[in-house]
Amino acid sequence: MNVLHTTDYVIVAVYLLVVVAVCVRVTRKNPDADELFLAGRTLGAGVIGLSLFASNISSTTLIGLPGAAWSTGISVANYEWMAALVLVFTAVFVAPVLIGRRITTVPELLEQRFDARLRRYLSATSLILSVLLDTAGSLYAGALVVMLFVPGLALGPTCAALAVFAGLYTAAGGLRAVAYTDVLQSLVLLIGSVILFALVFAEFDYSWAEVTARVPAEKLSLIRPLDDPALPWLGTLLGLPILGFYYWTMNQYVCQRLLGARDIGVAGRGALIAAALKLLPLFLMVLPGVMAVALFADLERPDTVFPRLIAEFAPPGLAGLMLAGLLAAIMSSVDSALNSASTLVICDFVQPRRPKLDTKALARLGRYTTLGLMIIAALWAPAIDNFPGLFAYLQQAFAYVTPPLVAVFAAGMLSTRLSANAALAGLLSGHGVSAVWFLATQLGWLDVHFTIVAFVLLVVTLVACALWQLILGGTVTAGQLASVDASRVEPAPRIVRWGAVALTAMTALLVIAFW
């Protein structure tokens, strides 16, 4: 499907040049480790909020949300508003601890609360997820989209080209380059999505009554029955907060922006900005997809909804802007994942073993690591084509891997008795159960929605931690408890707390309106 005109190619070229110019402008020569990984802890609230949004809105989101809405309805937007609530919680309760402890990686907090084994475990798991899911998945989805617009391209070389472009500026400029280019990319995403939404809504004479008359009612409901195959209400209530907590609070890929904030207030305001932005995809990406139910009855694959909307309704120039938005989504996800993965490798594995390395040497190793991880992701991305589907590949992996990690993190924050040995044994037990459950699901022995699986695995891990504590015993030192004691750090400012209340109310109204 080639819907591009000369104007579109010019817009894409100009966008790529602007990205390069912004990257060069904000990149310092030979940044040290603190600059490369945390932008010198100088990021402002606006940059943090827009960067969080852009790094999350990947090419899989731009393609997947409209496609899922066309196929199953707007309940796919539950991932978005739940993310807003998790970000609100993070801004008030978690960010003060992360910023107050002056940590560089989230796994570092687990070492302070438990020991180095838990730090390496979380770091290694996050690293694998970041490279093989976040980075490779974004490259794969992005390559598919580019191939739709530019026929004749091959999957492998397209993945490699996208990886090289994002990888080079990430290695050169680190988190500062990533964050500031993400600001540009988020603006392109928002502008393009607003225009496309307006064009699609125009087909219904800008009348919501017309939409409800032409689209089946069940596709316009956020809260779905328990037997709904896409997203049952119980999974929304119990499973999505767990997956969201890992993604927005424990995932270095996302949390690195908060760690790069100037202070606790800036981190909190940045998280709230991102939370507010996460309420927009329902309108800008999901509703156009569900409106397409009334517009396109001949689609063979849901993933073709987004390019079909552009082909049918975008005038010359807008298609180029939307393709630029897709490239923005790809690069913002890839650069974020690569930078965070490099941070995990250097700070959680290299630096503890080589404490005498200076910051320049660590930064140099960080750049080499970024390029190495870029190569791994680019090589793995085409292999995703052999899986049943990208959404299943991403969501099932997160649903089976992350709940035990969330359980141990939460227990460490809240429990004053859980020892390091019991936490590690509980985590291993939780992942053992998840591996057996995943195998049973693949063999057809179990058929439980992955969001409900996530909740059960969380409970199983918590129970396992409690049992192992009884069996192994062990004590917790005062220093370990102090590492997660919120009373020892500066609390979230009043403006952040009031902002959290306002955003929670807005989210509740949104859910009620589309119940």
Automatic annotation (TrEMBL):
A single cellular component GO annotation: plasma membrane
PROSITE patterns: NA_SOLUT_SYMP_3 (PS50283)
Topology with respect to the bilayer: Multi-pass membrane protein
Keywords: Membrane, Transmembrane, Transmembrane helix
InterPro entries: Na/Glc_symporter_sf, Na/solute_symporter
Pfam families: SSF
Gene Ontology terms, MF aspect: D-glucose:sodium symporter activity
Transmembrane annotation, as ranges: 6-24, 36-59, 79-100, 121-142, 148-171, 183-202, 230-249, 270-297, 317-345, 365-384, 390-411, 418-440, 452-474, 495-514
Places the protein is found: Membrane
Entry's family note: Belongs to the sodium:solute symporter (SSF) (TC 2.A.21) family.
PANTHER family in the record: SODIUM_GLUCOSE COTRANSPORTER 4, SOLUTE CARRIER FAMILY 5
Name of the protein this chain belongs to: Na+/glucose cotransporter
Organism: Parazoarcus communis
